[in-house]
Amino acid sequence: MDKTLYTLIVHSENIAGLLNQVAAVFTRRQLNIESLNVSASSIKGVHKYTITTWAGKDIIEKVVRQIEKKIDVIQAHYFTDDEIYFHEIALYKLSTSEFQNDPLASKIIRRYNARVVEVNPVFCIVEKNGMSEEITSMYDELCALKCVLQFVRSGRVAITTSCFERVNEYLTLREEKYLQNRKEQES
Question: Would the pLDDT of 42 be above 90?
């Protein structure tokens, strides 16, 4: 079966325990979560989960339907890479002495448009944001120079390439229906 890397964007109320419920949907389907990022969204009181996983289209559709059934989930959608704009961030902790002794390390950092954010006598920290492949390539090149002390990367952050966020449209329609029902009840 062909698998595609899908990015799920889930909007929910900020309720404790929801992450466990969402993760359980993946576990039941034996899907591995490749990356996970949870943060407040642009809508007050609404959180945004950005989850990546490899799956077939039929499975991802079922996963999204199951997630949307969770009581605190407002809306869930899945996207392929061409339907979203996404980035990751990575931090590389490098040995200052190795970094300063090898001019190639500095060239690598410039070539990948990364930036040095901290330097002290023991280590320096380099920050890179961009596509997953660039972050991995830069890591591999720095590792070859034997100057990497630590490495960490974030999960994917993503926004849709459409003009409107679907959850905004949904919440607007929900509010309009609520107000309409209220007017009808008062009449």
Answer: no
